[in-house]
């Protein structure tokens, strides 16, 4: 099948109905008992649970503290794996662990980037047709922005990446998701940034020194099947998969995150305190001063949110005062690699940025049917990591160390 045929087939399927999808993913129930008196998300942050993650699902570990593992309760049983910066044994305070790329030491981030590149290249090699498969990889903010017991708080407070592949035929056959699902808030009509200061947001990002990331025109990076992402600023990776081999790409990937952090933190500092002074630890202070703190829409929106917080306790309690984001790389319908970053304070799952809602159901038999092919791929990716001197294999009851 040619790329032209692939594009036509993908668009033809999507033309049937363009809407977010809810896909059902079976999993094998985890035989872990939450101690009496603890909430599940409290236990999942414990060193005990993270040890189980290593011993039952760990595939590879390296001296930098990066752990490659199988997702026990995953997004997709076609391909689904993660790399986590496992600091659980040396930083027992779950609120004190690194939770975003900007907090990871440079030597660790260098290894992290190499692992990300190899994982992405592996997925693109195994699933080369953009009409047949949705390929994505990315990470989520796991900041301590809510109390541990609040709904929606991440269950593992350590930075981790997701590597996921969905079958587009399965997505096309899946039931449409509820468009009012708050987890689908990704920059569309509900987004604070998009609704009130879209121009300021884009003008700020336009000030970044990007060479390998080219801004997408509005809508051109959207998946026809789901209609997502909606409204988010997105950038094409020049050179496609080959661009991932450029150190400059990973610097620019970090630059987008740093720009987002400056924007988010500056905005909510103004929400919190009228005419607050510029934060002392910004990455791009000149850009903040020029394009944010002198922008009427930016400051008008901060005033609007501040006044509502004072009057509406429920609204104020729902705000994430510290940055909440998802950042990912995905392949669009034309086969281009696209980078995007969310901008909401809801805390949606990473797949939902692309309009895919995952409904996980316990079904050991269905999972067992998919498991052999899934493990074959994860073990092959592990072999490539080892070959590149990125770690050593871990033995579990389900697979050997080599």
Please, could you describe this protein's structure?
This protein is an alpha+beta fold and 402 residues long. It has one domain (3-393). 37% of the residues lie in helices and 17% in strands. It has helices at residues 3-16, 40-43, 47-57, 106-126, 168-173, 192-206, 247-272, 285-291, 296-311, 313-318, 364-387, and strands at 21-27, 58-61, 66-70, 79-85, 133-140, 160-167, 175-176, 213-215, 234-237, 326-331, 337-341, 356-362, 392-393. A 10-stranded antiparallel sheet has the order 8-9-11-10-5-6-4-3-2-13. A 3-stranded mixed sheet has the order 7-1-12. A hairpin with a 4-residue loop joins strand 2 and strand 3 (66-70). Helix 7 (247-272) packs across helix 9 (296-311). The protein is globular and about 60 Å long. The two termini are 36 Å apart.
